[in-house]
Description:
Number of strands: 23
Oligomer: single chain
Helix content: 40-55%
Structural class: alpha+beta
Distance between the termini: 29 Å
Radius of gyration: 34 Å
Number of helices: 26
Amino acid sequence: MIAPRWRKVLRDAQQARGRLLLMIAALSAGIAGVVVMLSTYTVLTREVPANYRRSHPASAELQLDRALPAEAFRVLESLPNVQAITVTARVRGRMQTGPGEWIGILMFVQPDPATAKIGTVALQPGGRYPGKREVVFERSALALSKHSIGDWILVEREGHGVDSLRVSGVVHDPGVAPAWQEQTVYAYVSLATIQAMGGTPPLTRLSIRVRDGQTDANVIERTGLDVAKAVGRFGIVVDEIRIPPPEQHPHQAQMTAVIKMLLIFSLLALLLAAMLSSTVVSALLAQQVRSIAIMKAIGARTSQIRSGYLVFVALIGVGALAIGLPVGLIGGRALMRAIAQLLNLELTSLSLPWSLYVGTVIIAIALPVLLALAPIQAAARRSVRDALDDTGGPANGGRSLALLRLASRVRIGVAWIDLALRNVIRRRKQLFFTALLMSFAGAMFLASLDLRAAWITSVSDAASARGYQLEIGVPEGTSNAQVREVLELLPEVARVEAWRSDHAAAIESGGILITRVYPDGAHGGIQARVAPVATQLIAHEISSGRWLVSNDSDAVVLNGLALRLAYPTAQVGDTIPITIGDTPLKLRLVGISRELLTPGAAYISPRTYVRVASDTGTSNAFRIGLRSPERAEEASGAIRAALARAGIVVTGIVSEGRLASAQGGHVRILVVALGVIAAIMSLVGMLGLSSSLGVSVLERTKEIGVMRAVGATHGAIIRMVLAEGACIAVASWGMAVLLGVPLTAAVGRVLASISAQELELILSPMAVTLWFLLVVGGAVLVSVLPARRATRIHVRDALNFT
Length: 802
């Protein structure tokens, strides 16, 4: 037989089943959001470093001036802290993707990719490692190449003609970014293949893995210097030692920061959902004041009443957990896969530790119980006399009466609007939490749209600052005058400028350049650009100092990213050490350039570059402004053909469109994730609003009955309830705009650290307007059901309601 107190709790639950279902739905959405982010964080923090370690990344890479002799390998392998060594090369060119269509290709050359001990790639099912005249593609490049396993492709490389290679397989290399981001096809070939294509590139990239201290950059540096010393005994010069962050994926720190931020937001959504649930429980208990008093009058103890309702709330948490946990796990797997695609990862295991499940169960049940404990305790401890004397009026005296008097003075002139405003003021606590939750949802929504708008604006502004649409690479020593003579005759070309590019770095040890960058040189590195001082193809925004002038012979201008990466404490006027190519220099910092979405660059004049190389009449890169910028892809074909007729090899072409596509891919996942959290918060807020209005209608049953008795129509009552929901929505919208300012700034700082770029996020008027329409429209929609319930209240039943 069920004890009376449990029957009482069950009866209360049955009477309030609509509100309880909304509470369960709100808590389920919050739990699902937390599980999505927590499971994603757990799996990715395990899988990202595991992926990277499986590729056996180089502890350091030494750039040699020529290839090692065979006997040097035995000497290097005998060094005490050297676990493995290998030599590689990288060959750039282009490959044909269709009739008249070409794309850049980067070929990683190893003696034998199948037996590599450093920088290993995992062969995917259905293929094999490349043999002679064969190539394997990185899996993210297969779609970009528009070819499949078994196809023959046409490849043209610098200084050579077109060769045919067969695609023998697909591999996974977690050490490179997805090909669609960089708009470059990654390919892996053996040395025998390159030799068969004609010419042998020197294997001058010496990669090492240390035996001890694999996570200690100082140990790696000492070992690298020992290797450099041993290499020097064979008359080989080490130009540079590149030491990346030990055993750390290039995007690991940024990914962790983003997921942590989203996890905090999802926990906030769950907390607000639990707070909202506690206010609904408080309202339910307020309706049961006299029933609880009668139970106590016939012998029920305070502890029995308290435990009954606490179990009731715990069961609500269990119901929410039963829905939210599986939904969160499904959503988490979808988000994991999306981020894995963005970072080019292979998720070998999606398993989650038991502690995550236990923690989720505890949070889902304990949080609502803890927040409901205070109102349950207050209801259970109330004396029988106070409870039986309860009239439903204000419980805290003067403050509530003052608010009621304030509410009574509200005058808009339309009766149903006046009543709606008064009801909002009277039921301030419950409706405040609803508005607060909806405001957080709105702030998240605004931040996600502002992030997207800011990124698009940055990409657009960066494109506007670039007056060129194409940048072409040519072999070292190509005559500036010859390239200009060919290109300026083309009708598509409006302007041509030579912009030589060379590697630059700021650190030197014992005459050897040591840089803290990844072997690709792109992550954490800077480039020296020999800039025309009177350039018309870049609109430089100088944030401090000045731009280069023609008589500068010892001056340098750094962009913001180069300053941050290499010279964080430097100021205009300082003399900074910089190595350009193989030449160490000391240059005067004359200006700092603000550039959006641009790699780290140190700009010097042709006159300064004379100190590096005496021949200033040649270049390896040219920037081209077109008469019809929208036809860049077509113009690139004509330019390549014209240069080929003149005997000039094009090593690569980057168009404005491909650059914009690469830039846009870096922020897509963050925008989507913020939008998902905003959607979860919005759902919880709307469910809470519907529940709050349902409670409000129930509490005002007598009032609505009196209104009906004096002639209020169904339409007037419906409009009153809908207006009440709209008032709360408008209040939450105003709060969302206020919260959106600091939240948008915080998200902007996180994204700036991820992209290593300056990014200014401001509230978008379009986003503010769109959220207003969505939140008011959604509030009116979820208010329909409580409004219809209000119209079903009969006068006789309302006046008899207790």
